[in-house]
Amino acid sequence: MYSLPILKQLVLVLHWILVTINDALASLGLHPNLTWGLAIIGLTIIVRLVLFPLTWKQFSSAQSMQAIQPQLKELQKKYKSDRGKLQQETMKLYQEHRVNPFASCLPLLLQMPVFISLYAAIKGLGPLATGVGNPPLPSVDALNHASFLWIPQLGQPDPYYVLLILYVVSQLVSTELMLATQTDKSQKMIMRAMPIMFVFILLHFPAGLFVYWVTTNVWTIGQQLLIRKVMKPKDLAAIKAKPAKRSRFMEALTSGQEDRVKRRDELIAKQRRTKAIDAPTEDDAKSVGGARQGGARQGGARKTTRKPPPGKGKRKPGAAPGKGQSKSGPDGG
Fold first, then answer.
1. Contact 53/82 with Cβ under 8 angstroms?
2. What share of residues in the chain are helix, strand, coil (percent, to 5)?
3. What whole-number distance in Å separates Cα of residue 115 and Cα of residue 158?
4. What are phi and psi of 163, to 5 degrees?
C-alpha cells in the first residue's frame, strides 16, 4: 500500500510536519512527553484548515439539498413508476440549482489517506521503515514511546479506553450536527450507526491516531456551529436567477443519465415493434378460427358415423335379462 507514490510522499510530509512542530515546541521548553501529542493536535489543525474550502462547499451543498427537498418529493411522486426518468429529472434539478450531491463525501474521502499516512508516520511504516533487525528512526522511536496526559505511549492503544469513549461521543455530536440538514431517514440511521461500527475497527489502533481523530471531531463541531451562524439560508429564486456556472462533473452525470434513458426508450420501442410484427392480424385470427371450427365439425361427423363395437349395441327383444333384473319379471313370483 505504502509503495504508492502519493501515499509515500504523504507519509514523508506528515512525518516532517510532526517533527517540525515537536522541535518548535521543545525549543520553547516544553517536556518531550507533551510535545509529540501537541504536534499531532497541530497537524490536525493544519489538515482541517487545508480542507476548510471543501467543508464550506459541503455545508453549502447540504443547505441547497434541504431547500430543494419539496421539488425532489414532487418528482418522486410524478415519476414513481419510471426510475430512469426520475434520475434524469433529478440530475437536471441539481444542475439547475447548482447542487452537488457528492460534495458532502469529499472531505471525508480526503481524510482517509491522511489517516492511513499518519498511522505509517507513527508506526514507522512505508518510507520510514528501516528494515527487519534495524532500529527505527530516532524520531519514529521518540514518537512511539512518548506519553501524553494519561496516555503511557502514543504508539500503543489507550489502556484506559478514554480516547475511545471521547471519539464515540464527539463523533455522535458531530454527526447529529451534520444530519440537521438531512431529510432521508435511512441515511440518518446509517450515519448514526457508523461511529459504533468504527469502534471495533479502531479498538487496537495507536493512541496517537485517536488524538488526531478526537481533535478532528472537536474541530468539526466548532466549525459547524460557526458556519451555521455565518452562512445565510439558501434562496432558490436568487440562485436560479444567477448565471449558471459550468460544472463539468454535473454535466457529465446529466448527459450520461440522458443517454441511458434514450437507450432504454429505444429498446422499449424496438421490443414493441417486434411484438407488433409477430402478433397475428385480424384476418389471420379469422382464418385460424375458421380452421378450428371446421376441424370441430369434422370431428363431430366422425363421431356420429362410428359403428358400435360387437355386443355393445341395442339389446334384442327376448334377450337374457341383465344382472340387475329378476328372472321371473315384474309379475313373477
1. no
2. 70, 0, 30
3. 18
4. -65, -35
> Helix, strand or coil for residue 148?
strand
Cell representation of residue 278: 409477430
- CA 122, 128, 130, 134 torsion-angle sign: negative
pTM of the model: 0.67
Q: Which of 180, 236, 270 is nearest to 68 (CA)?
A: 236
Cell of 91: 440530475
Residue 98 contacts residue 247 (beta carbons within 8 Å): yes
At residue 232, what is the residue type?
K
Model pLDDT for residues 87-146, shown as the tens digit of each residue: 888 888 887 777 777 766 777 778 888 889 999 988 888 888 877 777 888 889 999 889
What would the grid cell of residue 220 be? 468539526
pLDDT, tens digit (0-9, with 9 covering 90-100), for 182-203: 656 666 777 777 777 777 777 8
Q: Characterize 218-255 residue by residue with b for buried, 16 or more Cβ atoms within 10 angstroms of its Cβ, and e for exposed.
A: bbbbebbeebeeeeeebeeeebeeeeeeeeeebeebbe
